[in-house]
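Give me a protein, keeping tokens residue-aligned:
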Amino acid sequence: ISVCASKNSAICASTSKSKPDSPPQRPFIPPWADQDPAQPPPSPDANPASGQPPPDGQAQPPVPAPPQPQPADLTPHGRFAGFRRALGRFASSGDRCEARTALGHWARTSMGGSQAGTARVARAVRTGGAALAGIARAGAGLAPVAGALDVRTLAGLSVDVAIDRIVDAFCPSGILDEDVARLAIGEALATAMSGIDTFDPAALDANSVRVATLTFVGELVFVQIAGDGSKSLAAAPSPTAAVQREADLRSLIREVTDVIGTPILEATGNVLTPPAMTSLVSRLVQAVEKEISTWQ
């Protein structure tokens, strides 16, 4: 996919948030990974749909226990250790080979493989899938799906304001991967509409949707890696170098996402519904992480 050679990348501000290492014997896929925000409780006088309250003392049906993770699905002790050591070496040297080694270790061991890594961001994938479908429909001149923001109504706003409205509409609060989803969607839309000052839904052509989709996938992978890396990039020789290393890491991830994802998008064609776009994004994330897992 790429050679082990240092490449320049535009300096970007850090967007990652450190997270603590997971204790051993926890599932690779957290139980909250695909949860929607909790619904508010019903009012005290709310009745069942039938209009009749349940008889006093009537037992409610038991809630089945969630399936228990199997040993193969549990994280090993120090799952991030090898990844962080290699990432620290990359931060210190800037050697792209070290970056590839770090990311390969992350995909294979820290994530437990591409399937588990994709499931880990399932909620963010659904959020992004809905947003991408929304802009694709707006670009095609179609009305939104029921209950979704009509992106066409944002015409004439500044691009920054329009992106904020789209992110707020499609990324609800109350989910644990909210930051991941918002960062990835915002970056994807900003990249797809780069150079445009005023938002114009008619400008959301097939290429814009392609760019936004690939950028979103790359950002989902990047934001996970930046967070899981904790303070590894602090091994860079200076704060300026640390920012450059993060930019180089993002560039590497975008490169592999473009190479792996473009043929998949070309074979798929236009995708205009949230479920179909979610399925496509999930497939892309898994394909990218599978490729990264082969890096040594």
